[in-house]
Structure formats: structure tokens, C-alpha cells
Design brief:
18% strand, five-stranded antiparallel beta sheet, 57% helix, Beta-Lactamase, 17 helices, 606 residues, Heat Shock Protein 90
């Protein structure tokens, strides 16, 4: 149901609730009918739909990946340019910071300090001239170490003179001196633009607002042509247009034409359109210098590679769709009809016609399938009866195996216990143990019915528990809860309780020197009767044992013993409702639960 239909139904329901509900029911019926129609189509028709759906999903996902790749490529391209801008700004900051720090060293120059405080009273003209020459030499050396500079000057207020690095001395421009001093005092920025000159300014001493003017100001003029050339080279390498502008827009270097067209309109925009051409806009702000570097990257440059990839992807997709359809046409011709005929034969056999034969004149792989199908049908009836007979024999053999199985360790331990009791002269206990052993072995070796009343199974388990009590000599406490007498005649497979109790002794409390505990009890929630055995021993790997039991239950050819045999016989008698669970007990050991299904008629008269 598309959006238009959904909206129309909701609108109709608001205006006419009864009519809207009827329309909604009608659309639901149409959907169910469509789904039923799809289910009733042939196998190859559904395969075609699935292939088309898979192709559409694959194509949609491919388009998504293509668009995501384009966006990622765009971001990476933009990030590369941003990193270049960031790197350039960092280098520019470092260079200007180095020049500024070097200007601070002027304060250590004795000649500059003497000239800045001399008022034509201490120094002679010769001394002043000598100092000025030394200062000019010092400024020239400083200038030659910086490729970014156009000139370096020293403005000395006391002399009223300006000394530059080119061995010239002139009257100081008082207005310029005052402007540079106030700009540095108010903004704190080392960069100052004055009448077409971009200067790196350092006054000495640094005065606060309202204090006296500095004694001298060192100013280094940045060569705007060099700065312009650097930005142009960076723009060319980045396939973009760039310019560098001060915070107050007093000066700009780079693409000045682009700056003029965007002045005051960029703010935080990330896109810009000029003369019908679209740009991505990026910017890097330098708080140290108070400047912003802008880059305008043409959109067609960013997307050139991705657009080419998109075109190739479209051609590939069209070719893939065409090839897929051709392949499916051939598969349908070679496999569709033969498979339909084979499925029809299986349906006929499924309905009980074991005499059905497929008639054909094929000589390909389907001929092999048809011939073997015909041969298989002829043997199915014989095999079915043979398998049923073998399964019955296996179940009976497993029961016989368990009935006649004598645990040599249990027998040895019991005989050794009689020996120890005889040595101690405990004849009454020997008599008791012998009686229990006789009853125990008489029960497990009898060859009567495979089903016994549950009361007999419980009494047999009590004999086994009493034997183990004597053997463990107080190391293990065993509690055995009674089952309601109303279930005494409930028939169950023989020997399904004792292996569970034996498992608790052997794997639970065998190695405990004292404080062993085993609880044996029943939980009744008709029609389910649970036989539970739990201990406080070390426990066994319940998940692993449970998996082994269930696997043996599925594969009748596996060797069986103990809990595996119990599980299989419970499933064989009670079906999927009966079962065996292994989990952790409340004491930290193992808890084994047998689930038996009690129903009327599943009992005998005691």
C-alpha cells in the first residue's frame, strides 16, 4: 500500500468513519490476495521475482555506496585543501612569531637603547653616527634572514629619526609612530596595516592604555607581492581560489576580485555561487594573527572523478541487468520445465503411488535424476519396512545392554566395602549391604517387560542409594522424597531413574571428603511428573553434556550409555513432551531433571 492510498484511507475515515473502515478492509483483502497469488505462482516465477528483488536491492545498495563514496571523496578532497590551508596558516604564524621574537631582541642592543634615551646631551655626533651605522648593519642582517620581508625599520622617538636596513636615515613620521603605538596598545596584534604597508610591529617598552608612548618601535614590512605569490601557488596546487583577509577587512592578499564579489556576504556560508559557477567555501581562522584564509573550490572540480565513476557505474548496471535476464531465460528453459516435472512426480509419490514412473527421452543430467528416481521409488517400500524393523531392534538392544551392564567399579567398591565391614566384625551391616546388592542386581538383570510401575523403579533406586550410603560412610547426606501413592501404577521405561542418581554420585560428590549432599525428589504438575536429582559437587559441563544427549537422540547409530540412554528412551516412549534437562543446582553443583508425561490409561493395577 503506497503513501497516497494510506493518506486517502485516513482522510476518508475522518470524514466518514464507517466508509473509511470499509475501504481499509477492502485494501487489506487486496493485499492478502496479492500475497496469496505470489505464493501460488510457480517456483521459477518466484525465483524470477526474488532475482529481480535481489537485483533491485543490490542496485539500490550500490547506488547508496556510490553516493556515499562520492560524498566521502568530496570530503577527503575538501579536507586535503583544508589541511593545506591550515598548514600554510601555521607556517605563516610561525614565521611572523619568529620575526616578532627577533624584534624583541632589539631591546638587548646597547646602541638602540642609548640612542632611544639620548637627548643630544650625552653622545657626540660621531658616537651617534657610529651607533646608527652599527644599527643599520644589524637591521640588514635581520632583513636578510627573512624572505617574507620587504623592509625593516626602527623608529626612535628621542631622535625623531627612522632608521631602515638599506642604510638610510630620515625624519620620523610622527603620525605613523603614533598610529603604530596606539594600534598595538589597543589590539595587541603584531600585524598592522598602514597606508598600503603590512607591518609586524613591536614597540619598546610596551605601554598600557593612558601611559606614555614607547621609546622606539621596530617595524618589519611584509612583502605583499611575496605573500600574494605564495597564496597563488597554493591556490593553483589546490585547484581553488584563495585569499587572505584581516579581521577588520583593512587588507587582503590573494584573489582580490573574488574578495570584492564576496565582501560582507560570506559569514558562515559553505556554498557560494558567482557568475553561474558554484563553489564550496572553506575558511581557516588565525586567532594569533587576526586573519582568515578563504578557499573557493569549484564544485565541478570536486565532483569530476565521481561523476565519471557514476557514468561507468550506470553502464555496468545496465549490462549486468541484461546479462542476468539472458542467463535466467536459459536457466528457465534448461531447468524450469524439468524441475517442474520432477516436483510433480514427487507429489504423486507423496500421495502414496509408489508405482509411479517418470517417462522421458532425455540424455542430460535430468536423465540420471529421472532414472534414479524411478529406481528409488521401487525400493522405498522395502527400505521403509526395513528401517522400522531395525529401529525396533536397536531400541530393544539398547535396553538389553543397559539391563545386563554391570559397572565393575561399583561391584568392586561394594565387595571391598563388605571386606572392610567383615574386618570390623559388623555382621549386621554386611547382611544389610548383601541384601541391598542382591535386590539391586536382581532388578537390573531381569528380562521381563520394558515397562515397570514407577513404584518399583523408586524402590530399586532406594536400594542403590542405601548401598552408596554404606559405601560413603557419612560423607554424603542423601534425601529421598516420596511420590504420591496415586501414581504407583504409572508405567515408565525400566532403569531411567538409577542412571541419574549414579551420575550424581560419580560426577558430583565422588571426590568430596565430607559435607556431600544429594537431593532426590519429585515435582508434580499434571500431566508432568518431574524426577529431580541435584547435588553440591563440582558439577559437570551441562551445556556440553546436554548437546551430546540431544545429538545422540537424533542419531540412533551413536553408542549410548547413562544419561544419553535415558534421554533416548524417554523421548521414544513419551515423545517430544518428555525430556531431560541439565542445569546448575541451588547448591552450585548439577541438577538433572527428567520430565515424564502422566496420562489416564498409562498405569497398571498394583
Amino acid at each position: 500500500m503506497n503513501f497516497t492510498n494510506t493518506y486517502y484511507i485516513r482522510y476518508a475515515a475522518l470524514k466518514n468513519p464507517k466508509g473509511g473502515r470499509q475501504m481499509h478492509i477492502k485494501n487489506e483483502r487486496l493485499i492478502r490476495k496479492a500475497v496469496k497469488g505470489i505464493k501460488s505462482t510457480t517456483l521459477f516465477a518466484r525465483i524470477l521475482l526474488m532475482l529481480l528483488l535481489a537485483l533491485l536491492i543490490f542496485y539500490g545498495y550500490s547506488v547508496y555506496l556510490n553516493l556515499a563514496s562520492q560524498r566521502r571523496a568530496d570530503r577527503e578532497f575538501m579536507a586535503t585543501i583544508h589541511d593545506k590551508m591550515q598548514y600554510y596558516i601555521s607556517n605563516l604564524e610561525s614565521e611572523i612569531e619568529r620575526i616578532n621574537l627577533a624584534q624583541e631582541q632589539f631591546s638587548n642592543n646597547i646602541d638602540i637603547n642609548l640612542l632611544s634615551i639620548d637627548d643630544h646631551q650625552v653622545l657626540s655626533n660621531y658616537e651617534r653616527l657610529t651607533m646608527i651605522r652599527d644599527i643599520q648593519t644589524y637591521l640588514l642582517q635581520f632583513y636578510n634572514t627573512n624572505n617574507l620581508l620587504k623592509n625593516t625599520e626602527l623608529h626612535i622617538a628621542a631622535m625623531g629619526k627612522t632608521i631602515d636596513c638599506f642604510h638610510s636615515i630620515r625624519d620620523m613620521d610622527r603620525e605613523k609612530f603614533q598610529y603604530l603605538s596606539e594600534h598595538y596598545r589597543e589590539s595587541g596584534s603584531v600585524l598592522c596595516y598602514y597606508e598600503g604597508q603590512l607591518l609586524i610591529v613591536k614597540p619598546y617598552p610596551v605601554a598600557g592604555i593612558g601611559e606614555k608612548d614607547p621609546l622606539y618601535i621596530a617595524s618589519s614590512e611584509i612583502d605583499l607581492k611575496t605573500l600574494q605569490r605564495q597564496i597563488d601557488d597554493l591556490s593553483e596546487n589546490s585547484f581553488s581560489n584563495m585569499y587572505l583577509a584581516s579581521e577588520d577587512q583593512s587588507w587582503v592578499a590573494g584573489d582580490t576580485a573574488l574578495y570584492d564579489s564576496t565582501y560582507g556576504e560570506l559569514d558562515t556560508k559553505t556554498y557560494w555561487e558567482s557568475d553561474g559557477k558554484k563553489y564550496y567555501v572553506d575558511r581557516v581562522w588565525s586567532e594569533t594573527l587576526g586573519v582568515t584564509m578563504y578557499s573557493f573550490i569549484p564544485q565541478d572540480i570536486v565532483r569530476r572523478n565521481s561523476m565519471l565513476y557514476t557514468a561507468l557505474f550506470g553502464i555496468f548496471t545496465a549490462a549486468a541487468v541484461l546479462i542476468t535476464l539472458l542467463i535466467y531465460h536459459q536457466l528457465n528453459r534448461m531447468l524450469g520445465k524439468p524441475m517442474k516435472e520432477l516436483m510433480n512426480a514427487f507429489n504423486i509419490v507423496k500421495n502414496g503411488r509408489l508405482d509411479y514412473q517418470i517417462e522421458h527421452n532425455r540424455e542430460d543430467e535430468f536423465a540420471f535424476l529421472y532414472n534414479n528416481f524411478n529406481e528409488m521409488i521401487g525400493n522405498i517400500d522395502v527400505l521403509t519396512h526395513e528401517v522400522a524393523r531395525q529401529e525396533k531392534l536397536v531400541v530393544e538392544a539398547e535396553l538389553k545392554q543397559l539391563q545386563y551392564q554391570i559397572n565393575p567399579h561399583f561391584l568392586y567398591n561394594s565387595l571391598y566395602m563388605i571386606y572392610r565391614l567383615a574386618r570390623k566384625g559388623e555382621n549386621e551391616r554386611i547382611e544389610e549391604l548383601a541384601q541391598y546388592l542382591g535386590g539391586y542386581y536382581r532388578y537390573i538383570t531381569r528380562s521381563s517387560s520394558k515397562l515397570v510401575p514407577i513404584r518399583e523403579e523408586i524402590e530399586h533406586c532406594r536400594k542403590y542409594v542405601n548401598i552408596q550410603r554404606i559405601r560413603f560412610m557419612g560423607r554424603v547426606e542423601v534425601t529421598f522424597q516420596e511420590l504420591d501413592r496415586k501414581y504407583d501404577g504409572f508405567l515408565i521405561p525400566v532403569l531411567i531413574f538409577q542412571p541419574v542418581i549414579e551420575n550424581a554420585f560419580e560426577h558430583g560428590v565422588e571426590n568430596m571428603e565430607s559435607m556431600g549432599r544429594i537431593d532426590i525428589y519429585f515435582e508434580v504438575c499434571e500431566p508432568i511428573i518431574r524426577f529431580v536429582v541435584e547435588d553440591n559437587g563440582e558439577g559437570i559441563d551441562g551445556d556440553k553434556l546436554q548437546a551430546m544427549i540431544e545429538e545422540a537422540g537424533r542419531d540412533s547409530q551413536k553408542a549410548v550409555s547413562g544419561l544419553v540412554n535415558v534421554y533416548k528412551r524417554i523421548r521414544g516412549y513419551f515423545g517430544s513432551q518428555g525430556g531431560l534437562r541439565i542445569e546448575q543446582s541451588r547448591y552450585g553443583g548439577t541438577r538433572v531433571v527428567l520430565e515424564l508425561i502422566w496420562k489416564d490409561g498409562m498405569e497398571c493395577t498394583i
